[in-house]
Amino acid sequence: MDAARVGVITFPGSLDDRDAARAVRLAGAQPVALWHADHDLQGVDAVVLPGGFSYGDYLRAGAISAAAPIMAEVKAGANAGLPVLGICNGFQVLCEAHLLPGALLRNVGLHFVCRDQRLRVDNADTAWTSDYSPGQEIVIPVKNADGRYTADDDTLKALESEGRVVARYLDLNPNGSLNDIAGITNEAGNVVGLMPHPEHAVESLTGPSTDGLGFFTSIIKRLVNA
Ligand SMILES: NC(=O)CC[C@H](N)C(=O)O
Asked: Which positions are catalytic residues (predicted)?
């Protein structure tokens, strides 16, 4: 089979699109550059919304990007089962686009927090986490100002009872996220939002570990076996 094609969307102000594309390539797939103003996904097999400060984080982080032309295609695709991963600012966009529930608020300390973070992968059944084992502990960087996951009580209960918390912060919670939530998935398990950055932990030369590569190898195995 030809290499899986994974789209990486660049919005004005995206920061980590090149690292995401590099992670896709290292994992064995072909990255496809997509632009926020595009009206089609070029037939990609999966989509990554990268980190950064899309549209300068104006209004709220991710709010303007959620209305970008390409997001109409991402929404239609996600609702039809297309695997979508939102990393940090991408997670913020997915919440603003209502592809994931809840919201990401300003960190409790009101500071931008940048450090290597220990996480536990609590759900290894999603399209993006199947290469991990349930409960696996990993270390990848976290770097954001608006990372405090919040949701109303009913949503939180549903996320917990349905096992939709994908990853949790271990040690110190960096931002005050409810239930130490670092990442969640939608009901179908094809859309995942993650606040820390797996694409910055794919090579030992430049990252704190290679623990992040699993998000990208997971999706590629899923696509190849589909
Ligand atoms: N690293 C990022 O993607 C930053 C996300 C976001 N703009 C924030 O500061 O919260």
From this structure: 88 (nucleophile), 197, 199
